[in-house]
Amino acid sequence: MPNDSPIPDSALQTQALSRAFGEKNAVNDISFQIPMGLFYGICGPNGAGKTTTLKMATGLLRPSSGRVSVAGVDVWADPVAAKRHFGFVPDNPQLFDRLNAPETLAFIGALRKMDPATVQARTEEILLALDLVNDRNTILADYSLGMTKKIGLAAAILHNPRVLILDEPFGSLDPVNTAVMEELLQLHVQSGGSVIFSSHVMDVVERLCQRIVIIDQGQIKAEGTIAEVSGGKRLQDAFVDLVGGRALDDGSMKWFGSSSD
Questions:
Q1: Is 217 left (phi over 0), alpha (psi -120 to 50) or beta?
Q2: Which residue, 34, 12, 29, is CA-closest to 64?
Q3: N or C: which terminal CB in the chain sees fewer CB atoms within 10 Å?
Q4: Model-wide pTM > 0.85
């Protein structure tokens, strides 16, 4: 039975959280608590319920039942207060594509009622950190998906939130930009903040995360440290064991890769 009150020192807490789409339970009665100050992974195969969980946690999708809080604030009871504490980067950020990067961040800052001088100063630092200075005058419509993810992160960190929530943040990034983003996120955690991200790429999760939760078919399969969840195996092997692997049937696809006259 989950506690009825959000835990103030938790980065994110779900309590019997569920979401149904018609007869399909995309997320089914999940409860877990993420302590503040961690790099935390929400893992699962495609369609497991990861994105649905993050959308409920960030005020984009109302739960069918249950509760979710960020930094001790109930997201659906007081969404305005909750959104002061987190920044969110979706898998495919939807931004105003006729604006350039400084204009985008100025607009985001204005929506958050931030001091314009602070926004301008932070914009210059963020663009430099994310290697977007040379593209500062390029409109977002001309950005690659990797660049769009970086400007999405820029918008999420502008107000210096305690909790960063990211949906598949490293997809579409080349190794150089992946390293840049990882370094920035590690800096946030080292400063006492929290990074929560979803992924099905276990190598990335194993390298970055201190704790993880594995979700499959909308239910929690395991939660704990990497060592606790992996049980002495490679995390990818433990992941496949938990969610159910699938091998080709003996004798199938024999034609594939064979030469023909």
A1: left
A2: 29
A3: C
A4: yes
Q: What is the mean pLDDT of each run of 10 residues along the chain (261 residues)?
A: 63 96 94 95 93 96 96 95 94 91 97 96 95 94 91 95 93 84 92 93 90 95 95 91 76 71 55
Could you tell me the end-to-end alpha-carbon distance of the chain, in angstroms, rounded to an integer?
66
**Which residues in the chain belong to E strands, given as ranges?**
10-21, 24-35, 39-43, 65-70, 73-74, 86-89, 163-167, 194-199, 211-216, 219-225
Q: How far is it, in rounded angstroms, from Cα 65 to Cα 19?
A: 7
126 token code pair: 């963020």
Q: Exposed, middle or buried by CB within 10 Å (0-12, 13-18, 19+), for 174?
A: exposed
- Two tokens at 42? 């929400």
CA distance 198 to 55: 11
β-pairing, 24-35 vs 194-199, is unpaired
CA-to-CA distance for 233 and 229, rounded, in angstroms? 9
Angle formed at CA 10 by CA 4 and CA 14, multiple of 5 degrees: 50
Q: Which helix (H) or strand (E) holds 111?
A: helix 101-111
Tokens of 6: 């959000």
